[in-house]
Design goal:
heterodimer, A: 10-stranded mixed beta sheet, globular, B: mainly alpha, 0% strand
């Protein structure tokens, strides 16, 4: 099917990222069943020289607009406070620091660190205790009590936090329980990630389409009763729906793709998908586009489209644009999902597209269709 | 507890079936969009300069990189 409307956004890769993802250590103290990270049992730490090179590279971006550094992992708190502070130090005051953490290591000292460095904290937690069965330590012990204790420390210090929740079984009955849990948790923002097949996680992510739509529709119902949490997927979808109704949906997509540079512990740079860092493929090599220790980051970004897998990915974006009616909402299938599901980058619809984009939009529309009576 | 009474896909239309379905759902969506806007105001996510539009309010959070990105949603 060829689309009558050609969406004008997402053409090529921007040379200016909105943020960088930093891997301060490969180590994670947990061994979650669904994790995609390949070296999370090893403690390969980022050197200060790498952080200095990145800070020098992004200084220009930070001067011209809001710019963020996302400390991801591994588990970034496993780096230790002293070393993480040394990695923060080269970045100027105009840069926002964000941390995605499993919360298990958060104590009063870490809370003081967050406050001192004005860190935006986001916690990975999958709902109530019984829904965190995949979250275990290396000895196989459940991690939930430690996660809850860490969140308790954040709350006792009045540190606002966001949450990311992985859902392995999106189906009716699950969404209400989840939303109610997060209401009680006191988070400001919630993002729902339907589990993905990627990296070293090879579990299938194929679900009954009707069940996934019903999950999202039920989530809207639950949220609507008490919409005190900024719910990422609902905000995202309503933004698109409002723009369609207003007739300006084509202005919604970014003009170019954000390169999302991920800086690995050793300074190597993987663009577009942090999930590809650390992997190797006979056809694509190690997916890197350079190393900040030998080439300035802006130069690496300027030459991004020269990386062979990225050329293939950009053809995949055009294939999505030309064939998928959801392109205006989605912007094209994500690189890592294409690779780990299709083995290449120029295919189109992935199971991740179906679960987290297509069924999401359809579920919100199903909800809106079935709840006209509540119109105010 | 069937949430969906009439499951339906935006398929089987010649062109741009998704846009067509959004327009078909205007009544229900408008109510939902209005409630979302009120909720944002109560969460103090909108400043007067936002002009009260969903797009501007959304932009406030668009720059939270642990949450939003069009071409690779963080996990």
């Amino acid at each position: 099917m060829t689309m009558a409307v050609a969406w004008s956004g997402m053409r090529g890769i921007s040379a200016e990222p909105g943020y960088v993802v930093m891997q301060p250590t490969t180590l994670c103290n947990l061994a979650c069943e669904y994790c995609y990270l390949p070296f999370r049992r090893e403690n390969r730490k980022m050197t200060v020289a790498v952080a200095e090179a990145v800070a020098a590279g992004v200084a220009g971006f930070a001067r011209t607009g809001r710019f963020s550094v996302v400390w991801h992992g591994g588990e970034p708190l496993a780096t230790g406070r002293a070393h993480l502070a040394a990695l923060f130090a080269p970045f100027g005051a105009g840069v926002e620091h964000h941390i995605q953490t499993n919360a298990t290591l958060i104590d009063d000292e870490w809370c003081a660190f967050f406050t001192e460095h004005d860190v935006r904290v986001s916690v990975s937690v999958d709902g109530p205790r019984e829904r965190n069965g995949d979250r275990v330590d290396w000895a196989g012990r459940p991690a939930y009590d430690l996660i809850a204790r860490g969140i308790g420390r954040l709350r006792s210090h009045d540190i606002p936090f966001s949450t990311l929740c992985v859902v392995g079984d999106p189906r009716p009955g699950v969404a209400t329980e989840l939303y109610d849990y997060f209401l009680g948790l006191g988070c400001e923002v919630l993002g729902i990630n339907v589990e993905e097949t990627e990296g070293v996680n090879t579990r299938l992510n194929r679900h009954d389409p009707a069940a996934v739509s019903a999950f999202w529709a039920e989530l809207v119902t639950a949220w609507r009763r008490e919409p005190t949490i900024h719910l990422r997927e609902v905000e995202w979808t309503l933004r698109y729906a409002a723009a369609v109704l207003d007739g300006n949906a084509d202005a919604l997509l970014p003009r170019r793709l954000d390169p999302i540079p991920t800086i690995a512990h050793d300074g190597s740079v993987v663009l577009l998908s942090p999930e590809l860092a650390g992997f190797h493929d006979p056809r694509y090599g190690d997916f890197t586009s350079g190393n900040v220790l030998t080439k300035p980051l802006p130069e690496i970004l300027a030459g991004a489209s020269g990386t062979p897998w990225i050329q293939e990915f950009l053809r995949g974006i055009e294939a999505c644009r030309n064939t998928c009616p959801y392109f205006g909402f989605c912007g094209g299938a994500h690189a890592a999902n294409r690779y780990f599901e299709h083995g290449r980058f120029d295919g189109t619809t992935t199971n991740h597209c179906r679960n987290s984009k297509i069924r999401l939009l359809e579920g919100v529309l199903d909800h809106a269709r079935d709840h006209e009576a509540t119109a105010v | 507890m069937p949430e969906i009474t009439k499951p339906r896909l935006s398929d089987g239309v010649e062109t741009d079936p998704v846009t067509a379905r959004v327009h078909d759902t205007r009544a229900g969506l408008s109510a939902l969009i209005a409630e979302a806007e009120t909720a944002r105001q109560q969460r103090a996510e909108e400043s007067p300069s936002d002009g009260g539009t969903a797009v501007c309010a959304w932009n406030h959070f668009e720059n939270i990189p642990t949450f939003y990105n069009w071409n690779n949603r963080p996990r």
